[in-house]
């Protein structure tokens, strides 16, 4: 048993050194939420993206949600969320065969005293959806799923952008 352990000791040492180097360079496992550089936040907005963002930020260790803007170091305001549905292709019978969904979220970031940290910006997500005439109900569910997926993607982008904010000293 001891011989087996000693035989694998060089491999374990290499893995340990690799883990230390990867941790030191800032490597994060994919899907892991990055740590934001502030301790209190307030998310303003009732759109789906704002709800997704709150859920993501609740996973941040040590981050608290403020009830008043003056209590928050960062105030992210989701000003609008719009979904556009455009028919891209038609079938021979003239029915929609493929649609494009486009979600645009407009937001801004201030500190608790209304000083602008990030000016008014948009994030746009686009998805294409093929429609099968025989499965009309399923395409409605697929469209709803894609809208939720776009909201999640935009919320993740917002967390990454919040991570890059540098608060004034």
Describe, in short, the structure shown.
The protein has 169 residues and is an alpha/beta fold. Helix content is 36%, strand content 32%.
Give a structural overview.
- There is one protein chain.
- This protein is α/β, with parallel strands linked by helices and 169 residues long.
- It is built from three helices and five strands, in the order αβαββββα.
- The protein has helices at residues 2-24, 48-57, 136-163, and strands at residues 40-44, 64-65, 74-90, 96-110, 116-130.
- Strands 2-1-3-4-5 form a five-stranded mixed β-sheet, with helices on one face.
- Helix 2 links the parallel strand 1 (40-44) and strand 2 (64-65).
- The model has no long low-confidence stretch (mean pLDDT 84).
Question: Any low-confidence stretches, pLDDT <50, length ≥5?
Answer: none
Order of helices and strands: HEHEEEEH
Enumerate how many helices there are, as a single number: 3
What does the average pLDDT come to? 84
Secondary structure: helix percent: 25-40%
Beta fraction: 25-35%
Question: Within the largest sheet, what's the order of strands?
Answer: 2-1-3-4-5
Q: What's the story with the biggest beta sheet? A: 5 strands, mixed
Write down the Rg. Answer: 23 Å
What descriptors fit this protein?
3 helices; 169 residues; 5 strands; 32% strand
Topology:
Elements: H1 2-24, E1 40-44, H2 48-57, E2 64-65, E3 74-90, E4 96-110, E5 116-130, H3 136-163
Parallel strand pairs: 1-2, 1-3
Antiparallel strand pairs: 3-4, 4-5
């Amino acid at each position: 048993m001891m011989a087996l352990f000693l035989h694998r000791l060089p491999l374990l040492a290499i893995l340990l050194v690799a883990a230390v180097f990867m941790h030191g360079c800032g490597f994060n496992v994919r899907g892991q939420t990055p740590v934001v550089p502030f301790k209190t936040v307030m998310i303003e907005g009732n759109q789906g993206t704002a709800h997704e963002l709150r859920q993501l930020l609740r996973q941040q260790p040590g981050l608290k949600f403020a009830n008043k803007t003056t209590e928050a170091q960062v105030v992210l305001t989701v000003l609008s969320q719009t979904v556009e549905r455009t028919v891209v292709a038609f079938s021979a019978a003239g029915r929609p065969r493929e649609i494009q969904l486009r979600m645009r979220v407009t937001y801004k970031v201030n500190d608790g005293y209304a000083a602008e940290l990030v000016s008014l910006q948009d994030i746009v997500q686009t998805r294409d959806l093929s429609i099968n005439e025989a499965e009309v109900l399923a395409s409605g569910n697929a469209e709803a799923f894609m809208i939720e997926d776009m909201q999640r993607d935009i919320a993740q982008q917002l967390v990454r952008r919040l991570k890059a904010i540098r608060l004034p000293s």
